[in-house]
Amino acid sequence: MSKILSLADLKKKRDELKSGLDIRIKALNPENSVQVKVAMATCGIASGAKTVMEFFLEQLDRRNIAAVVTQTGCMGYCYAEPTIEVKLPGQDPVVYGFVDLKRADQIIEKYIKTGEFVDGIIPVNYETVDLNNKEE
Amino acid sequence: MKILSLNILDIVQNSIRAKADKISIEITESVKNDLYRIVVTDNGTRIPVDIHENITDISEATRTKRKMGSGLPLLKYYTEMTGGNLIIESIEGKGTQVKATFSFSHKDRQLLGDIAGIVIILISVNPDIDFIYRHFTDKGNYRFSTKETKEYLGLNTLNSRSLLEDLGSMIGENLKEIEASGFVFRQSLKEVF
Fold it and tell me: Would you call B155 exposed, middle or buried from its count of C-beta atoms within 10 A (0-12, 13-18, 19+)?
């Protein structure tokens, strides 16, 4: 692949690809797709949330899973970082702790694809952190 | 946090939480002037006055009230280790600017790390925010703006994995061109996984 140094190079490459399938632009409805929230506060970032986030962004796309990956603040489980929250359509969210790449892979393969729980669930009466309410 | 790009990611979270829709990240490095400066500017809501006073005091980072955390205190600590400082300005209606100044040559100054990866993460999870990334070195400078990129490519979203990967390598190649220091360039997770 030739180096892409400017937007012009990038545009040229995109135009060449246009005949292929590679220019999918996502427009997902969060209601009926999988939602993955990665906790990205200081505690999460320090424990490796960046790698986990990159893994989910890349692998969910590569494995053709319609998913929205977003970030959230500290959920209060700093001891278990990196933590992620996964919400399958129509189900309650599940929070997983100590998510390394191996566990992230299991979460995609088992929980997201088949609904089978994997290790590392943080068992709590849990409600989604709502940034707007949290401020008050 | 061992590398500066992670600190930047952390500071930008504050801007996102302040509901900013335009966030600029600016890095200036100069061997000549022994300067390494990171400036994050946003147009979000201002930091409340009562919080602003103690915002870099780590003992104020409470678990219960959850108003402030340890991101800024940590960054301040890292800058002061090198003889630099951290300045936070927050103006009602304009936004907030966090300016972290380090000594370039000090051995405790952290390296930048995978900044291109950080910018790509920020763009992919915050599609509605305009990000501007600028990097100045003694050799030249580079500027990346999501808004300009969208306009140039005629797209209203950059949220396509292959496009984001190309953007990441574009930022990386340009940083190489201007000889940005301490910067790591990883094209894909394939090497990790």
Answer: middle
